[in-house]
Amino acid sequence: MTDNIRILFGRHVRKLRQENGISQEELAFSSNLHRTYISDIERGVRNVSLDNIYKIALALDVSPKDLFDF
Amino acid sequence: MTDNIRILFGRHVRKLRQENGISQEELAFSSNLHRTYISDIERGVRNVSLDNIYKIALALDVSPKDLFDF
What we know:
By secondary structure, the first copy, chain A, is mostly helical.
C-alpha cells in the first residue's frame, strides 16, 4: 500500500508536468534535481521526501498540497 | 526555504494530532513509527518521505493531501 502512494504521486507529478508542457529535463533543471530522479519519481519508484516535494511544487508552480491532489 | 516546508508540515501534523485528541505515543503506535521520530517531525527537523507521510495520514484518518493543507 505504501508502494501505492509512490505510484499515485508519480503519476500526478507526470500529469502536472505534461500540463505545464515541460519535459523531464526541463523539470529537472528548474527543480535542481537529476533527470533520472524525476523519471524515477514519475515511475513511482522513489520515496520522495519533503524537501524535494517542495522543489518539485515550486518548479511546477503549484503548492505542495496540489501534488497530492490525486 | 526547504526548512520551512518541514516546519509547516510538522506544525500541521501536530495540529491534526491534537484535534484527534491523541498523544505522540499514540500516533507513533498507530502509524508504526517511533515516538521520537513523531516528535522530530512535529519540531520540523525531519525530511519526511512519501511512505511515512502515508502512514501518518492513515493513522490520523486523513488523506495525504490534508497533511499539506497549511
